[in-house]
Write a structure and sequence with these properties.
The protein contains 14 helices and 9 strands. It is of the alpha+beta class. It has a 6-stranded mixed beta barrel with strand order 2-3-7-4-6-5. A hairpin with a 2-residue loop joins β2 and β3. The C terminus is likely disordered.
């Protein structure tokens, strides 16, 4: 008998006992659905975060902070020293304050960041065309950018409608931002009722945040930077620049630090999910072994007739291996397809939520092709193993006794 005939014979047997087979492989299908779905969600989040972090500009920038001592400051003299380092192209400064934003009689607490115009490009934040955070010399209100979360606190469910509105900003200088306060041991000073006009509302952090021109904070007496962003000529000089700055006692970070941490976290998470899924699949395989053994015992009379009709022991065993391999492979494909369907639904829901809240949409369900192919190959291997084990007693089946078997 040819392999083609045995394969067709196997398909007929599978169809004749389809409900029993469906029940037997349903556990495997459920395990595959959960495994593929969870790994795909983890893969999607990993790719999403890395893609947001990994851009050419960020690769060449170094964020510098004073550290946690409270005594080390980022002064203009120190910045001038950093600019003399080989490979440094420019340095952008930032000062962080606690503040309050007022609009039409309502007030909300907000983080107030005094930043330079290039801040948004360096942080991959897109401002509307022709909008810059550059202080004006005219008597009109100065420009300010607000986060979407802050705009919603003032009742603007569509944050872009907040653009053009006049607002007042109070912010607090401290010893960490003002040389005068530091030297005179004064804890803080409130800069009150600065007039601004909203020029953009941007997505990002859930914390209410405003961004205003760095030069305004300096004019109000701020002298110490909360952090600076050092732009290097290329990625090759970044490690050397970081080492020099850190030797001065400052703390540095680069987007590659975050990317490495993200990749490490999701690699561990995917490994953990894979192990959990593998345990489920192995447990299901043991169930299939029991089912295969029970199926073998219930089909002894059938096997005896096949021997009487001239089918060899190895041919009968081969049909059982075919049967288990086909069932395992079909259950795995079914589980993958159902997982993909759930993933598409997940992406649609995420897209709707992103559009509703003004965020840029990105797919969070991304099936890893390599892992999927490996799972399909593993399902064939599991099926072959189950078929070989469950059919191992075929050689001991006596046709005469088998025909009497009930």
């Amino acid at each position: 008998m040819s392999l083609t005939y045995l394969f067709k014979f196997t398909l007929i047997n599978i169809y004749q006992t389809k409900w029993r087979n469906l029940l037997g492989v349903s556990g495997l299908a459920v395990s595959v659905i959960l495994l593929v779905y969870l790994i795909s969600i983890g893969n999607g989040f990993n790719n999403l975060i890395v893609s947001q972090l990994n851009n050419p500009t960020a690769q060449k920038t170094i964020t510098v902070t004073p550290g946690n001592t409270g005594m080390l400051k980022i002064t203009q003299d120190q910045i001038s020293s950093f600019k003399d380092y080989s490979g440094v192209e420019k340095i952008d400064e930032e000062i962080d304050f606690g503040g309050k934003l007022s609009f039409n009689g309502s007030t909300s607490d907000a983080m107030a960041l005094a930043v330079e115009p290039d801040y948004f490009d360096q942080n991959s934040i897109s401002l509307p065309k022709d909008v810059t955070l550059q202080a004006t010399t005219a008597a009109e209100p100065q420009p300010i950018v607000v986060s979407n979360s802050l705009a919603k606190l003032f009742g603007f469910n569509k944050p872009s409608n907040f653009v053009g509105q006049a607002v007042l900003l109070d912010y607090t200088q401290t010893k960490a931002t003002s040389k005068d306060l530091f030297e005179n041991d004064v804890d803080s000073k409130v800069i009150q009722a600065k007039q601004f006009r909203v020029v953009a509302a941007i997505p990002g952090t859930n914390q209410p945040t405003v961004y205003f021109p760095y030069s305004i904070a300096v004019a109000d007496g701020a002298t110490f930077d909360s952090q600076i962003t050092v732009s290097a000529a290329n990625t090759d000089v970044v490690p050397g620049i970081r080492a020099k700055i850190e030797s001065e006692g400052y703390t540095t970070s680069n987007v590659n630090d975050s990317i490495n941490n993200v990749n490490s976290f999701f690699s561990f998470l995917n490994f953990l999910l894979f192990v959990i899924g593998l345990i489920g699949i192995v447990a299901t395989t043991l169930g299939l072994l029991n089912l295969g053994a029970a199926s073998f015992n219930s089909r002894i009379k059938e096997f005896a007739w096949l021997k009487v009709l001239g089918m060899k022991n190895f041919q009968i065993r081969l049909t059982l291996v075919f049967e288990q391999a086909i069932l395992s492979f079909a259950a795995t494909i079914g589980g993958i397809l159902i997982s993909i369907a759930f993933g598409l639904i997940t992406n649609i829901i995420v897209k709707m939520m992103a559009q509703k809240n003004g965020y840029t949409y990105a797919a969070v369900y991304q099936t890893p092709i390599g892992a999927t192919v490996a799972l399909l190959l593993a399902s064939l291997l599991f099926g072959v193993i189950v078929g070989l084990i469950s059919s191992r007693n075929i050689y001991a089946t006596n046709p005469k006794l088998g025909l009497k078997h009930d």
